[in-house]
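Sanity check. The docking grid for MU-OXO-diiron depends on where the pocket ends up, so I'm generating a full predicted complex first rather than guessing from homology. Inputs follow.
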Amino acid sequence: GAPGPTTLANARFRSVAPNRRDAVVLPDQFDHDVIIRWGDPVLPGAPDFDVRNLTVAAVKKQFGYNNDYVGVVPIGKDRAVMVVNHEYDDIGLMYPQGHYSQRDLARLGMYTHGISVVTIKRGKVPGSWRRVKDLTKAPKNRRITVETRFKMTGPAAGSDWLKTSDDPTGSVVKGTLNNCAGGTTPWGTVLSGEENFNQYFNTEGTVPTGPTFGGAKDSYARYGIRSNSSDPRNWHDVDDRFDLEKEPNEPHRFGWIVEVDPLRPKSQPRKHTMLGRFKHEGANVVIADNGRAVVYSGDDERGDYIYKFVSEERYDPRKTARARNHNKRLLEAGTLYVAKFTGDGLEDGVSDGTGKWIKLCSDRESFVPGMTVEEVLTFTRLAADKVGPTQMDRPEDVEVNLVNGKVYAALTNNSQRGSTFPADEANPVTSCGTRTSPGAPLEMKSGNRNGYVLEMTPDDGDHTRSTFTWDLFLICGDPESPETYFAGFDKSKVSRISCPDNLAWDSSGNLWISTDGAAAGLGHNDGLFRVPTSGPERGRVQQFLTVPKGAECCGPLVTDDDRSLFFAPQHPGEIDGATFAEPASTWPHTDDFPRPSVCVAFRKA
Ligand code: FEO
Ligand code: CA
Ligand code: CA
Ligand code: CA
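Predicted complex below; grid placement will be based on this.
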């Protein structure tokens, strides 16, 4: 037959060169549009964005700050709803210094977090999308904020550890915080990970001790809940639930995977306790051959773990309301596991070996001595510590390649590998090449500063099995540096890459990797890379785009028959010493300060 059109999956392009520009840079044959910026209207009645005249009432109707995960669910041939996380705020970059009171900043900050649901429609150029600006025609638009009530599901819902004075039932939680990455489910809902939730809690007095179990670490310490004297937010000054002395259980109500149904704007979002509580980067669902829903999730902390959940019930593929309602309950019961990686020795020249998923609990039974099911799920890190999983270098996105059935995990970096954390075959790099600017010489530094992409192959291709094999698909960094590895591909033909964070797939099974931290590791802006996972070009990493100065690249999402690439430059201008008055970036160049925004890239017409 005739060759198909050029798409994101098959395009041959010249790799974008490392740079420090304050711009989105793409290959020549591609273009991009900004779909929505921080402060743009999401709900009817939202006032025009005015950074000097912000109120809580305005922010509740406007697009939040620091867009991270982007999910897109079609609602017709030419329309879709886009679900976007707002991970965190940055007072120094967002607002004119001294313009707002400390208490106003706390309140504005709370509401700029959360999740937005935004209706989009096709643009003129195939693959392009724009937001629906007439909000009377966007009834699915939604802002989920710090006051939206979430229903707790699963075995730990209603547990004593979740009870507070506002919610003596321990089953309804106000708000979601630090939503980082996520996943769109086969039933058209969106999962979102509550990541660094610990930072919002504080107290004027002494931080109490957290619960502990049979010799385990103090749970507050294990989750990084402590006195944050350097954090400028001080939410505990305006809302008692962020005060650790007044509401010691409130932090237990964050650190979960939340599920939002963007097709039903009035539906109550949920937090699924069955998926465990840790610094969830995100969560991704795959339906195993036997119909069970399998969810992979990383705990983004130095030395923390990779987790898997297998549902008790089976997925119903029918396109009926009844089937969808059944599927929406799949994440409420099943079994939670944590990963252990064993190497087969480095004599073969590659980091690879076998792996095992260790059971933590099912919805009925705990497999961790001294901890109940509720405790395993609420203090998952403490439970996992007891069963000997492998300490990884900050697990970020964990995503299944539907073309080859393998699971890929981004392990972003760990400067303490080789010191605090001893090396092992799955975490082999203790010294790596770095640069201070794109053209500066390579210097070796201690630790793993550029990260890995790990490939896991479930035994018999069965995601419900407890055994797998694994290999490091990429050891990231500068290809001129000896420790790097690009699945065996010719290192003279690949792009340098540092700090993989978010993963996505096109329909040919190419992996798309976005980065967060390239400036620190290799001296250039972050961006997005395409790499084949099979065939003669397996491992050929090519830089597809760079994001503006100081930004990390979030999203990404390749969709619409590989014609649309959604990506979300987060925290443009976040560079040491930069402020609102003296910004390091003014992207997207509509104001004299930066505004995090969601974009779509597509082939030029
Ligand atoms: Fe929010 Fe792990 O990145
Ligand atoms: Ca080996
Ligand atoms: Ca991330
Ligand atoms: Ca990140």
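Relevant for the grid: The chain has one domain: 30-603.
Also worth noting: Residues 343-346, 348, 350-352 surround calcium ion (ligand 2) (CB under 6 Å).
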